[in-house]
Specification:
- This protein has a single domain, classed as 434 Repressor (Amino-terminal Domain) (Orthogonal Bundle).
- Helices cover 60% and strands 0% of the residues.
- The chain contains 4 helices and no strands.
- Helix 2 packs across helix 3.
- The longest helix is centred in the first third of the chain and has 12 residues.
- The radius of gyration is 12 Å and the shape is globular.
Length: 67
Amino acid sequence: MDKFSEVVVEQLKDQKISIPDFAKQIGFSATYTYNLLNGNKRWNADSTAMACKVLKLEIEFKRAEGA
């Protein structure tokens, strides 16, 4: 599971949102959403943006030290 999926799963638990309900809100099937969350499918810009909108999350990009 990637870090973004870990955050999403944590937020779903904290906000008491089921994965099937979350899937409906982001416009994907429950199966596809489970695959995103367990790493069998990859998040893209659109799916990430929808997840952030539903869960009220912001993504911040930072330059890595030494880069």
